[in-house]
Amino acid sequence: MKKNVYILEDRAILFISGVDSKDFLQSLISNDINKVTEESSCFASLLTPQGKFLFEFIIVKHKSGYFIDCEKSQCKEIFKQLNLYKIRSKIEILNLSNEFVVACFDYETYLSIEGAKDILGFTFKYREDPIILDPRNKKLGARLIINLEKLYLSLKKLDLNSDKIDNYYSKSHKLGIVPKDLNKLQNNLFGIECNYEELNGIDFKKGCYVGQENTARIKLKNKLSKRLLPLEIIEGNISEGEKIYIKDTEIGKVLIDGKYSFALIKFLDKKFDKEFVCKSENGIFRIFIPEWLQSKLN
After folding, report:
1. pLDDT one-digit tens code per residue, 174-197
2. What is the distance between the alpha carbons of residues 99 and 51, in angstroms, rounded to a whole number?
3. How far apart are CA 206 and CA 273, in angstroms?
């Protein structure tokens, strides 16, 4: 019986190479680039100087440089932003989205491939192409970054059958990890409010990076009072920017609407109770707490 694979056509691949590429990324991203090796990849974000969310991506070592696996809707902006920071750095930034594609398959399938290890972010080569156990959460499965011309032969050899991308979106949403529409989060919340600490996207021990000061301050002074949480619609619909209420108390705001909706929720508010049904102007829904976050919110 063939196993399912999702061709993530909404993902893009940038490639950063050059003698300064490692130092260049280290000065910008929220995670530690030293974690990224031939056998380890990482999840990271690029923030504003104030620590607000701009972009997120997975970084994978490739030959003499790094793949940046990002949402396609953010790709051009990321490319532009990296070039703004480039200045005199000896690096080259290429958009390889027309050449490479990202395919995703489940955790059990990943473990069945020779060479796989049960370590978040673990990376190994399959016919010269990297397979990565998602560094955020292993229930998201693994990703294969591969040249488009080789894709279908590799999928055939791995006995993988293409499935609808919406099924991957649904899985990610149920896990409480944003699958798409990341542009709707830009400048609307702090990176740390995106749960990046729990998703292995922030390293508090590394040196300076863009947005580091506010990110560290929120962490050290226990000022994290809001979090990005998924919504389960019960009735009606919700729109981006709508306020969310529990009874008559405003508890948050919708940032991503639609089928895979997320809101910034004041989880420390005394009125917040995850068992309560919430409402907005046009909808009724529940806020659900991902398993990997429950201990932090109890």
Report:
1. 999 999 999 999 999 999 999 999
2. 33
3. 35
DSSP 88-132: T---EEEE-TTTEEEEEE-HHHHHTSTT--SSTTBEEEETTEEEE
Mark whether 163 and 274 lie in a shared domain. Answer: no
- Domain extent for 232: 225-298
Please report whether residue 183 resides in a domain.
no
Amino acid making up residue 13? I
Helices (H), 138-178: 148-157, 165-175
Q: Which residues, 6 or more positions from 177, have their beta carbon under 8 angstroms from its beta carbon?
A: 136, 137, 140, 199, 290
Residues across the chain: 298
- Each residue's pLDDT tens digit, 241-261: 999 998 888 999 999 999 999
53: Cα within 13 Å, side-chain hemisphere: 24
Question: Alpha carbon 152 to chain centroid distance?
Answer: 25
Distance of CA 118 to the CA centre of its chain: 20
